[in-house]
Amino acid sequence: MEKIDFKVKEKEFYLPKTEPSMIQVPEMNFIMVDGHGDPNEENGDYKKSIELLYALSYTIKMSQKYKKDTSAFMNLPDYVVPPLEGLWWLEDANDMDFTQKSKFCWTSMIRQPDFVTPAAFEAAKEAVQKKKPELDVTKARLERFEEGLCVQCMHIGPYDAEPATMEKMEIYVQDNNLIYDIGNPSPDNKIRRHHEIYLSDPRKANPATMRTVLRHPVLRKDPACN
User: Fold this and answer.
1) What H or E segment, with its residue span, contains residue 130?
2) Is residue 96 part of a domain?
3) Residue range of the domain that includes 48
4) Dist. CA 31–CA 36, nearest whole Å
5) Across the strands, what pairs with 112?
6) DSSP state of 222
C-alpha cells in the first residue's frame, strides 16, 4: 500500500504560492504541546516540546511497522509524518513587538492521520515514557483542531524576515474585503492564532531558502461596514 503523504495528497494546505491566497482549513488531528519562552533557547522548553512531538509521532508510525504488542496500533496504514507546525502569540495581547522572543507563547504540533485514535496516542505515551523517561509525556495531548477561513502564503527565507511576507498578507486581506481574526474563537471554539508550518529543517537548510507556510485566520468583512 502506498504511503499517505499529506504534503502530496493535500498540497493546498502545505504548498501555497509565494503570493497570499485564501484557504478554508477543515478539522484535523494533532498532537500538541503548549509552552512559552524563547524558541532559540538551548535546552529550552520549545526544543523539548519538539523532541516530545517527534518521539510520539514516530512511535505511532513505527509501531505498526514493527508490530508492537498493542492492539491500539493494529492495521494503521503507512504514512509520512507531517511537518512540524506552530501557533504563536505574545503574553500580552496588546503587545505587538515580536522581537521579544522571551515573551512568546506557543503551541507546537504535528498533524496525525484521522485513524490515529486516543488509544494509539496513550499507547505511544507509555512507550515513549519507558524509552525516554526524561521527556514529560503529560504535556502532550491529542486534539482535533479546525481553523476555518484563513489567508496563507509561502515565506522563503529566515524566520526573522517573515514581517515582509506578513505585510503582503495584510495587503491581500485589505484588498479582498477581509479582516484579521487573530485572538478570537475559532469554529471549534479555540483561540485563533498566527500559524506557521515548517517545511525546512533549520539545522540543515540555508536560511535564505528555507520554506515556511504562514497562515492567519480571517473573517469576511460585513458589507454593512463598507
Assistant:
1) helix 118-131
2) yes
3) 6-225
4) 17
5) 29
6) P
The Cα–Cα gap between 85 and 109 comes to 5
Using CA atoms, how far apart are residues 223 and 226, in angstroms rounded to an integer?
Answer: 5
Q: Give residues with Cβ within 8 angstroms of 142, minimum separation 6.
A: 29, 30, 31, 32, 112, 116, 118, 121
Question: What single letter denotes the amino acid at residue 198?
Answer: Y
Please give the Cα distance from 114 to 120 (Å, whole number).
11
What are the pLDDT digits (tens) for 87-128? 999 887 666 566 778 889 999 999 999 999 999 999 999 999
Number of C-beta neighbours around residue 181 at 10 A = 16
How many Cα atoms occupy the beta-carbon half-sphere of 157 within 13 Å?
10
- Round to whole Å and give the CA distance between 106 and 120: 25
Q: Please answer whether residues 18 and 94 qualify as being in contact, where contact means their C-beta atoms are separated by less than 8 angstroms.
A: no
In sequence order, what E strands does the chain have? 21-36, 84-90, 104-112, 140-156, 178-180, 194-198, 211-220
- Domain with residue 170: its CATH number is 3.20.80.10
Q: How many domains does the chain have?
A: 1
Does some domain include residue 1?
no
196 or 101, which is more confident: 196
Query: Measuring CA to CA, which residue among 129, 150, 148 is closest to residue 140?
Result: 129
Kindly state whether residue 95 falls inside one of the protein's structural domains: yes
Question: Is 25:150 a contact under the CB 8 Å cutoff?
Answer: yes
What pTM was computed for the model?
0.91
Q: Give residue 226's pLDDT.
A: 46
Cα angle: 218, vertex 222, 225; to 5 degrees = 120
CA pair distance 158, 130, nearest whole angstrom:
37
